[in-house]
Amino acid sequence: MKKRIAYILLFTLICFLSLIAGQDLLLETRLQNQGLVNIHTLAPDILVELKYSTTDNFLNADTYGELENCYLQPKAAVMLKQAQENLKKINPDLSLLVYDGARPRSIQRKMWALVVNTPSQDYVANPDRGSVHNFGSAVDLTIATNEGVPLDMGTAFDYFGKLAQPRHEAHFLKEKKLTRQQIDNRHLLRDVMTQAGFQAISIEWWHFNAVPVKEARSQYQIIE
Ligand SMILES: [Zn+2]
């Protein structure tokens, strides 16, 4: 009898594990099936550390599961490869370090569920409308050494305060809350990205759009 229970438990565990593995496999396959590109197929030397695939993020939750690769629309992926080349020309010891790219709406719904009716709600786009990340055309990133040590940008990624907002940089430099070096590091990131065609935004130093929001909405489907 004990043996039978052990078999049933083992069978249940195997079913559960294969279900989890299947779901994660499905997520990456789904991204590929929707025409998105793993940026490592174009630029294998770009560093990738998907923050939402760890618990080191403002949600303190791993909402990406087994997904470790960064996917983007083909146009955005080509532009990111160009940005990496721009950076390498300036300093071959540095690399882009990507924190987030395309974000399927299924993940956006998980994030939304974690923040709805909390103070963090303002920092997550409503999944019904979607953000540029949901259209596969936005990337969150920093610059790091080739060994993966990020440059000092004055705040951490996903720091939701004015200190992270490029529009206040001159003010915070004057107030000595940001150093010249931190602002130079942000300028380097903005230069290599905008020279590749990306658009910076005024409220997050790490976020760049490959196409304007309107264009993303008219050209692409939300990734599911
Ligand atoms: Zn972003």
Q: How is this structure best summarized?
A:
By secondary structure, the chain is α+β, with helices and mostly antiparallel strands. Helix content is 42%, strand content 12%.
Secondary-structure map:
Elements: H1 2-33, E1 37-38, H2 39-42, E2 47-48, E3 71-72, H3 74-90, E4 94-100, H4 105-115, E5 138-145, H5 169-174, H6 180-195, E6 199-200, E7 207-209, H7 213-219
Parallel strand pairs: 2-4
Antiparallel strand pairs: 1-3, 4-5, 5-7, 6-7
The chain binds zinc ion (ZN).
Structural descriptors:
alpha+beta, 7 helices, Muramoyl-pentapeptide Carboxypeptidase, domain 2, two-stranded antiparallel sheet, globular, 7 strands, binds zinc ion, 5-stranded mixed beta sheet, 224 residues
Number of individual domains: 1
Cofactors and ligands present?
A: zinc ion
In what range is the share of β-strand residues? 5-15%
Major β-sheet strand ordering: 2-4-5-7-6
Tally the helices. 7
- Low-confidence segments, ≥5 residues, pLDDT <50? 17-22
Second-tier CATH architecture? 2-Layer Sandwich
Averaged pLDDT: 91
User: What is the CATH topology?
Assistant: Muramoyl-pentapeptide Carboxypeptidase, domain 2
What does the overall shape look like?
globular
The chain-level structural class is: alpha+beta
How much helix is in the residues? Answer: 40-55%
Q: If you compute it from the alpha carbons, what radius of gyration comes out, rounded to the nearest whole angstrom?
A: 20 Å
> Main sheet, how many strands, which sense, barrel?
5 strands, mixed
Number of DSSP strands?
A: 7
Q: Kindly, what is the distance between the CA atoms of the first and last residues, rounded to a whole number of angstroms? A: 45 Å
CATH class label: Alpha Beta
Strand and helix order: HEHEEHEHEHHEEH
